[in-house]
Amino acid sequence: MPNHADTLRGAPVLVPKGPDLGLFGPLGLREPAVYGTGTLADIEELRRTVAAARGLHADCRQSNHEGVLTDAVHEARTVHRGIVINPAGYSHTSVALRDALAAAGLPVVEVHLSDIHRREAFRHHSHVPAVADTVICGAGAHGDAMALTHLAQLLEENR
Ligand code: DQA
């Protein structure tokens, strides 16, 4: 088993979250039955801790704007080694974000807190899996930890 923390040496990875995923408060401001009651700060802390343990530096972002997310993915081409993205509502609508991810030429892991396949029909299709290496959904905040661990493995294999 490789020791990622030694070999990846703090490689920067982009971890963007899409619209409405900033709406987590101590009381679970956004549909707590679906998304849990953790705050965005809790989730980001978990991400940074897991990333560091795997030798990655998680550059966490959240935006409600498609263009901001698309620009961040463009920037990642030259700055980051991989992407763990929860595009939120844009998963189902944004061809631009999908195209940016395809152009980035980086390993991509798509994450959803909820299991989108067991929810409303309009959530069943995401544009992102076609350009992602892996999709993780339905594991709540733990999905981010799984995604970062998996991204470290992909980077280790392709070093
Ligand atoms: C989500 C699922 C999307 O359908 C929804 O629009 C979100 C969150 C998830 O993490 O489960 O905003 O991406």
Structural write-up:
With 159 residues, the chain is of the alpha/beta class. It has one domain: Rossmann fold (3-Layer(aba) Sandwich), CATH 3.40.50. The protein is 40% helix and 17% strand. A five-stranded parallel beta sheet has the order 2-1-3-4-5, with helices on both faces. The protein is globular. The mean pLDDT is 90. The site of 1,3,4-trihydroxy-5-OXO-cyclohexanecarboxylic acid has 11 residues, from loops.
Q: Helix and strand layout, with pairings?
A:
Blueprint: H1 4-8, E1 11-17, H2 32-35, H3 40-53, E2 56-62, H4 66-79, E3 82-85, H5 95-104, E4 108-112, E5 134-137, H6 142-157
Parallel strand pairs: 1-2, 1-3, 3-4, 4-5
The structure holds 1,3,4-trihydroxy-5-OXO-cyclohexanecarboxylic acid (DQA).
Which percent range describes the beta-strand content? 15-25%
The molecules bound to the chains, other than polymers, are:
1,3,4-trihydroxy-5-OXO-cyclohexanecarboxylic acid
**Gyration radius from CA atoms, angstroms:** 15 Å
Uncertain regions spanning at least 5 consecutive residues: none
Distance between the ends: 15 Å
Number of helical elements: 6
List the secondary-structure elements in sequence, H or E.
HEHHEHEHEEH
Q: Total number of β-strand segments?
A: 5
- Name of the CATH first level: Alpha Beta
Overall geometry comes to globular
Mean pLDDT: 90
Classify the helix fraction into a percent range: 25-40%
CATH topology: Rossmann fold
**Do you know the CATH architecture?**
3-Layer(aba) Sandwich
Main sheet summary: 5 strands, parallel
CATH superfamily: Dehydroquinase, class II
